Amino acid sequence: MKHIILLLTGILCFSSCKKNIKDSAIQAPISKTIQKPDFTQYVNPFIGTSKMGHTYPGATAPFGMVQLSPQTNFEVMFNKDGSYNKETYEYCAGYQYRDTTIIGFSHTNLSGTGHSDLGDFLVMPTTGDLILDPIKTKENTKGFYSTFSHKEESASPGYYKVKLKDYNIIAELTATERVGFHQYTFPKTKDAHILLDLVYNVYHHDDKNVWTFLRVENDSLVTGYRQTKGWARTKKVFFAMQFSKPFKSYGHQKYDSVKYDGFYRRFKQEENFPEMAGKDIRAYFNFETQANEKINIKFALSSVSTAGALKNLEAELPAWDFEKTKLETQQKWNDELSKIEIKTITEADKTTFYTALYHTMLSPILYEDVDGSYLGLDQNIHTSKDFTNYSVFSLWDTYRALHPLFNITQPSRNNDMIKSMLAHQEQSVHHMLPIWSHYANENWCMIGYHATSVIADAIAKEVGDFDKKKALAASVSTANVSYFDGLGDYIKYHYVPEDKSHSSVSKTLELAYNDWCIAQIAKSNSDKKTTDIFLNRSEYYNNVYDPKIGYMRPKLANGEFRKDFDPLDTHGQGFIEGNAWNYGLYVPHQLEKMVKMMGGNERFSQHLDSLFTMKLEDKYIEKHEDITRDGIIGNYVHGNEPGHHIPYLYNWTGKPHKTQERVRMIMNTMYGPTVDGLCGNDDAGQMSAWYIFSSLGFYPVTPGSPNYAIGSPLVKEAVLHLENGKKLTIIAKNQSKDNIYVHQILVNGKAINDITISHKDIINGGEIIFEMNNIPKINP
Amino acid sequence: MKHIILLLTGILCFSSCKKNIKDSAIQAPISKTIQKPDFTQYVNPFIGTSKMGHTYPGATAPFGMVQLSPQTNFEVMFNKDGSYNKETYEYCAGYQYRDTTIIGFSHTNLSGTGHSDLGDFLVMPTTGDLILDPIKTKENTKGFYSTFSHKEESASPGYYKVKLKDYNIIAELTATERVGFHQYTFPKTKDAHILLDLVYNVYHHDDKNVWTFLRVENDSLVTGYRQTKGWARTKKVFFAMQFSKPFKSYGHQKYDSVKYDGFYRRFKQEENFPEMAGKDIRAYFNFETQANEKINIKFALSSVSTAGALKNLEAELPAWDFEKTKLETQQKWNDELSKIEIKTITEADKTTFYTALYHTMLSPILYEDVDGSYLGLDQNIHTSKDFTNYSVFSLWDTYRALHPLFNITQPSRNNDMIKSMLAHQEQSVHHMLPIWSHYANENWCMIGYHATSVIADAIAKEVGDFDKKKALAASVSTANVSYFDGLGDYIKYHYVPEDKSHSSVSKTLELAYNDWCIAQIAKSNSDKKTTDIFLNRSEYYNNVYDPKIGYMRPKLANGEFRKDFDPLDTHGQGFIEGNAWNYGLYVPHQLEKMVKMMGGNERFSQHLDSLFTMKLEDKYIEKHEDITRDGIIGNYVHGNEPGHHIPYLYNWTGKPHKTQERVRMIMNTMYGPTVDGLCGNDDAGQMSAWYIFSSLGFYPVTPGSPNYAIGSPLVKEAVLHLENGKKLTIIAKNQSKDNIYVHQILVNGKAINDITISHKDIINGGEIIFEMNNIPKINP
Question: What's the pTM?
Fold first, then answer.
């Protein structure tokens, strides 16, 4: 252990002094209540936990590495015949509000994603007979899960509490950035147990475990790691688990078949033997408790090593004061939430708004130890020298509004995130920027290379001090990996041929937009040659537009459009998670040209009208889990991302009042203050970021440009406290439920006659006044 | 990559400057031939590759981390019905001389062990159709193995060569400490392939793979790692593989069932896709070659990371000069071998002797990167601050003669090995010294805690500068782990009760001896209290001696000896890999007392006479794979360790001439210059170390004491060049095949009248003369 500490000290000294100071600031004393005003009161972490929101109600710090959250209704994972139950899609974040049982509390959870992973290190306190099977024992009696009631459950930012009825245990959770903090209040019993289940995974049926390793270092400290082959193909998470009270005994059961001769012959290794390893293990720790006795657990994570986890634990949570930690984390949340102070038409809108804002800060996640070391994409240990490393970049979703929002609310973090993307590119054997960066893995989810959009947007908005030259080189490298998902053919044919690669139209459209982003990055580097190359590529969207039918349409390698084609179908029609009606409107960088190409203002706005009002047949909906009735208005899909810019497109048809109608309608019908308040996956915060922008009255239709499309604010007033020290006040005059139309916009007293406002109007502070009315303002 | 390099530089600066200098010395220019005299000519690496020697003929540097060796006759692993073929026990080192096929060349191999593991990273060059199945393809045609002939095969220290007949390829191998160096001479072909098989393991049937990971970094560099769950339960080996010529294409096949959605949908990942991961993978690299074109591969290992492997590669093998590397490694071997210059009765004896000496330097192995970092037992990365870290400690075997030999031939390395053991103890969650230290794992093989013997022996012989206080604390800690293999009961009952723990007599005897060693360590620390405690424990052997029958005998917890008992049986009689006749003579620390207890000189020497002359029934032999007819004289088992001291015990019965007869007989019958020249497993060098000592005329019957028992030298003369700069000349006057009896010993001219000589007589240099005769010298 000593050697490691010396080693880490060595690293600290030459690379991370800044970090040390930053991290030690965590220990600063704070008062015993949250500083007023308290915005955490408006956050309801249960929003999105019903239906397909895929959010979790557990405890986490802003952008924290630990997401400590209850896992419900484990039994749903399997049908009675042992087969996979497709309902498990609902369990991407481990929790469904309708459930009545909790199987334990896991330390890693994804927020709002459309695919599942994580659920690492399930901890469950129990009493009575020791039961190590979660659902049913071999004797067909009840497993270790407990029933619970929402009446005895509560959650707020950084805090979760529930009564485990079967054991009469109160479970409370809080967390610092890297450490989960458990507090279990036990009844009086000689048979109290705390289980550490290393078998459990979100989507357990996938048999994700590769290897687990545990050491009981002493009577109250356990270390180890788990390696899984889930969505992140080669994922390792290390931990250090410290109990506030020594356990009186411990043991484990191994569920895989391999016997280790040495261990097998020489030891009774299942009980009080301090070393456990294998594929599937459940460990237990036994206690005797007095009535209302509290046992606390600090559970630190690391991507590097158990020594790293211990360092994180010692740096972030040296004390055992649960209330203090809870308050500190709540204060961190309040500091973040108070960056936007709003007045709303209804109190409920505040809940929707601040919960959405909360949801924009659950990912990307911090992905480094307190000394800046982290596991890189190349599976080597790296040290972040002049940045903080982040992971979980669901970029196909989040480039649209979440990262643009960060350019207002989190510019420093967005700068770090871009630096993390550049480090990822350096570590990538493909020399590619992240597509979906996932715990030192690339999971390749969805299409395009939208890290380029995040970079271009930051450059357009003058955010960050990342190396623009390096960013350009990384983008160009990414855009030339010929084996990547149709890209070689895209470069060769100037579109992705449908007979060469599925989802060919979506790919062509997104690559063209990404190439426009790269052109912007090149332009900011004064690299004319590269700018021209990528501006040229950014026009390739034209090549998949069929003017004869007026839709984007899959084209074959021979230059002909594919004959079979249903523009309403989301399957096998050249689009991914969308149809031609929706996804075919995806030319965010040349909106005017697109409108013109598609028949001009009138025809395009009629298309939009039809899109929002047509009745879509069931056959087009039920097939895809990302598109459900809950998230659909006509044929417009708000519950998934490819159409998020669409409501704002009326602006480009001379009918901004229709944008204003639609965005207000979407805010009121697709979002709400209840557990089912999200109409689809929150998608790592993208859905919520859409709401934040739209509530404030504008939206980044073209990330990579400094302009926002104007919508219709939902707030009556918003004060944005910007990182640069400036303050922007947004006032919606005459705001009401019916006054959804914008008649006039005054930026610092000056009227705007455009359909957009610029980032400078936001970031320089001052005042933006929207004059609202219940009558549309029809342009002449 | 840059970050890692910075990181490693940081480590270097504060902890390993010494190492850097040491390692850079590897690059020093040397002449194009080995400095004379050339002792490597007497080494035949094929000795022990037939029958049960379990040695390998491949290329390695002295104590090197890489053991690059051919793997033969893979098909023997399975019977036709798919079941495990017990003949695989012969394949602990991957090679059997009688075989006619080679499946490839692996980078890690154990030398002489009685259990198998390793075989990491099998490389095989082929031509013609690409075949990825080793034995048979799905179409039932031949796999990628090749036939070979011993006529076209040769091996010498640090070098191996063979013609792969099926492909007309000459394969040559050499190695530095951490890098294997391949040279393949191809015929002219458009279809040359180099396979990298990550599925292969020694004892493949165990399904040892946990995870493998590969990256094609560029057109001639591949990195990755493999994690296995073999004898080392949680073993990871990282590699960097550099080709001298860019491959024109590459690919892989995965043999496990898990499909990764992201990869599966977006890429044709099997060909020219630079990232591979999964449980079981075989990769291939394609070339076009001219006639006699050489392709070289440098294959570096690391326990730390692929970055570490690359660092090792760059530090140790920057150039591509195969001949130069081969010569440098041969020179290293010659430097080691020339530490003992001998004259012998026959030339063949030189081969036997120098091959044995060679076999004493194949393990323990170096187990750290060039910067001193290594994977610790706690699975964290450590840095060896004032020592070089070693692994592969087969201590139940090697404490007997190998580590004592190191105190003469390798005192610096033995000091490092002891420091490695102390580091192991610090990292052990059991706070125990190694039992069998195995690639950052404890495999718990065999009984006792013999690291204490290695420590005590070094202290008795004043070897090393390790911390004696720490060594005592580590030993005492080890000796008090109550759950360890009968130890708690041993402490409680003052013997291990047979009804509590198997092999109870062997355990009692060995623990008692180990406790005597701890007493010696305590004494050297002037810790009287601890000395007394462990001297007291060292007498516990008395408690398993049954004076009624005159044998050590299993005793029950109730204090009664077990009724059923067969002192000739090696199974279930309270002994492990031995019977009461052999193993029952194991009180090395109190030989006089033991002889007295067992009836005195006459009776004891009669027992020894019977032991060496009785005819053992077959039923006692065939059951155990470590005890075969080849290694047996009467009922004495030389092919396994517990009796290695026995031939020397006549000295304690007043009949040293009988020792002289037996050790000469054993040297002549149990060792030889042929491929079947080892009568049993070489056991990581222990069998060979017995031969070296005995050849020189003395043997460490009691490691932990400074004394050696006198035998009968086989050499005519030996000059030992000691690390302290001194020189010891041993002369056997009148030496001949018949003159096996020692009549007089003169140490620097002074006659010895004892049955032992002391370590000082050796290490201070000078001259020892044995006066040999063909008539026994019977003491009056």
Answer: 0.94
